[in-house]
Amino acid sequence: VQLQESGPGLVKPSQTISLTCTVSGASITTTSYWWNWIRQPPGKGLEWIGTITDSGSTHFSPSLKSRASISRDTSKNHFTLQLDRVTPEDTAVYYCATAGQGYWGQGTQVTVSS
Predict the structure, then answer these.
(1) Among 11, 5, 8, which Cα is nearest to 85's?
(2) pLDDT class of 69 with cuts at 50, 70, 90
(3) How far apart are CA 76 and CA 39, in angstroms?
(4) What are the residues whose beta carbons fall under 8 Å from the beta carbon of 1, sequence distance 6 or more?
(5) 3: closest CA among 78, 87, 73?
(6) Measured between alpha carbons, how far apart are the two ends of the chain, in Å?
(7) From the CB of residue 20, how many other CB atoms can be counted at a distance below 10 Å?
(8) What is the pLDDT of residue 1?
(9) Alpha-helix runs per DSSP H in the chain
(10) Beta strand spans in 1-114 (E)
(11) pLDDT for the residue 101
């Protein structure tokens, strides 16, 4: 299973981060596969953002729930994170990963700066 993140590397404050994770080697609707977005700010640890399940349900970190959404396109076998009203504190390497199976993308750097 391979995951690949894509999206803009630079976003201005107050705008929206939109990142897509394209999956190969498994369908995102495969039973028991849950798909996560995780980030790591510079000098800090990993932070879970949210999850979309095999059935399409979503779950979010309480601290980001008001700004985050995750959707999916099963025809393209990808899922997308949107994070609204970003600030420089949202600067991080963003990863997509499975839950439990241990598959991760390589990560993509997103910088929030004017």
Answers:
(1) 11
(2) very high
(3) 23
(4) 23, 24, 25, 26, 98, 101, 103
(5) 78
(6) 36
(7) 18
(8) 95
(9) none
(10) 2-6, 10-11, 17-24, 35-40, 47-52, 58-60, 68-73, 78-83, 92-98, 108-112
(11) 86
Residue found by looking up tokens 């399940």 in the block: 53
Torsion of CA 46, 23, 4, 94, to 10 degrees: -30
How crowded is residue 56: how many other Cβ atoms within 10 Å of its Cβ?
Answer: 13
At residue 71, φ and ψ (nearest 5 deg) are -130, 175
Task: Write the pLDDT tens digit of every residue in 46-68.
Answer: 999 999 999 999 999 999 999 99
Measured CA distances, 92 to 3, 41, 77, 96 (Å): 18, 4, 25, 13
pLDDT score of 100: 81
Q: In the block, which residue shows the tokens 């979010």?
A: 60
CA-CA distances (angstroms) from residue 39 to 14, 18, 27, 85?
19, 13, 23, 17
Q: Which two tokens stand for residue 106?
A: 């390589």
